[in-house]
Design goal:
- The structure is a single chain.
- The protein is an alpha/beta fold and about 230 residues long.
- The protein has nine helices and six strands; from the N terminus they run E-H-H-H-H-H-E-H-E-H-H-E-H-E-E.
- Helices cover about 45% and strands about 10% of the residues.
- Its EC number is 3.1.3.5.
């Protein structure tokens, strides 16, 4: 069923348009080789990916800062695979990861197709909890910057999704209202509940079909947005 009255669409970036897991894996492969880190990449990623999500949840909830996130996720992942990495190596890898992450540019299937479809009838925007300097690089190198009229990141606002302040700030910058806006993202707590709690409509992007019976509109391929828009 088509959603009526929408003029502005807000996308999350990581895990929604930009394929974070694929690009992150390529980044680790590169920086491990650069720093001669003798670990099995697949084994590392199997442990790192859920650890990273845990640390981002802590960061989103204001329980840790950026530095703690960057160090802690690596330290815990190396501990989980029984690899001894000193502080110097972890700090170097942390810096190298941020430096090289945005140089990879894999997007989810049909990203360009759906953005080209939507741009004629809607104003498009980004709301992200990611670090500002990294997110801009991701968008530029993925060649999607030109689709979006505004980009709101948590560092510039001082709060993170699902805090209503970041959504209200994004609406103000976009010069639109909550009843004309739609949020699309992969994180049920940060993107979907965050939007719903201020009265904004939302669509969950669940590429792995892991979310069931949550009572919200959801898709597993971006092209399926045509069903609603």
């Amino acid at each position: 069923m088509k959603i009526k009255g929408i003029t502005d669409i807000f996308f999350d970036l990581d895990h929604t348009l930009w394929d974070f897991d694929k690009n992150s894996a390529l980044t680790f492969d590169k920086i491990f080789k650069m720093n001669n880190v003798p670990v099995d990449l697949n084994n590392f990623l199997q442990h790192y990916e859920p650890i990273n999500l845990k640390y981002w949840k802590l960061y989103r909830e204001e329980k840790i800062d950026k530095k703690s996130l960057r160090y802690g996720r690596l330290n815990e992942a190396f501990t989980a695979i029984n690899f001894t990495a000193g502080d110097a190596l972890i700090n170097q890898l942390s810096e190298d990861y941020i430096t090289h992450l945005s140089t990879f540019s894999h997007l989810f299937e049909n990203t360009f197709e759906i953005l080209d479809y939507l741009k004629y009838n809607y104003s498009l925007h980004i709301i992200t909890n990611g670090f500002g300097e990294v997110q801009q690089g991701k968008m530029k190198n993925s060649n999607i910057t030109h689709y979006f009229k505004t980009v709101t990141n948590s560092e510039s606002v001082g709060v993170k999704k699902p805090n209503p302040k970041i959504f209200n700030h994004a609406l103000k910058v976009a010069n639109t209202s909550v009843n004309k806006a739609l949020m699309i993202g992969d994180n049920f707590e940060a993107d979907i509940l965050g939007a719903i709690n201020i009265g904004m409509d939302a669509i969950l992007f669940d590429v792995k079909n892991q979310s069931k019976n949550n009572g919200v509109k959801q898709i597993n391929n971006l092209i399926h947005l045509k069903k609603y828009l």
